[in-house]
C-alpha cells in the first residue's frame, strides 16, 4: 500500500469503517479505534514497545479484530514544526506499515496530544498516577479525533 500524506487522499476512506490510531512512545504505544461511523474515538490497551515483529503482529491482529480500514500514526514534530527523533521514527513506521499492511497508513501532527490527553484525564478526576498510566492511549484518542475532524472537513 502506498504511503498517504495528502489531505485529499483522506476522502477515499471517509465514507465509513473503523480507523486505528497509534501514539508512538519510547516504552509504550498508545492505541485508539474509531467507531464504524468515524465519530467516536475509544482508547484500547497499550502495546509494550519491543521488536518491530511484535508491533506488526499486534497491529495486524487489531486490524483484523476491528476490521480497520486505515491506520493513523501520530507524528511528534517539535513545537516549531521541526523533525524530532520520534517524528523520524513515526515516518519510518509509516513506511514499514505501508509495505506490510493492505490498508492506507497516514501521519497526523500530534504536537499537543500528550498535553491535551493529560488535561482531559485530570479534568475527569484521575490522579497524577492514574493519568500517567492512561496518557498514551488517551493521546492516541486525541490524535484520532484530530484525524477524524480533518476527514469531516474534507468531506464538506
Outline of this structure?
By secondary structure, the chain is α/β, with parallel strands linked by helices. The chain contains 4 helices and 6 strands; from the N terminus they run E-E-E-E-H-E-H-E-H-H. It has helices at 52-66, 85-100, 113-123, 128-155, and strands at 19-23, 28-34, 41-43, 47-48, 70-75, 105-109.
Question: Using DSSP, what is the number of strands?
Answer: 6
Radius of gyration: 15 Å
| Oligomeric state of shown chains | single chain
The CATH superfamily is known as YqgF/RNase H-like domain
How far is the first residue's CA from the last residue's CA?
A: 26 Å
- Give the C-level CATH assignment: Alpha Beta
Give the overall shape, derived from the CA principal axes: globular
Overall structural domain count: 1
Task: Assess the beta-strand content as a share of residues.
Answer: 15-25%
What count of helical segments does DSSP give? 4
Question: Which series of helices and strands comes N to C?
Answer: EEEEHEHEHH
Work out the helicity level: 40-55%
CATH architecture: 2-Layer Sandwich
Q: What's the mean pLDDT score?
A: 85
Can you tell me the CATH topology?
Nucleotidyltransferase, domain 5
* Sequence stretches where pLDDT stays below 50 over 5 or more residues: none
Report the sheet with the most strands, covering strand number, pairing sense and barrel closure: 6 strands, mixed
Which structural category fits the helices and strands?
alpha/beta
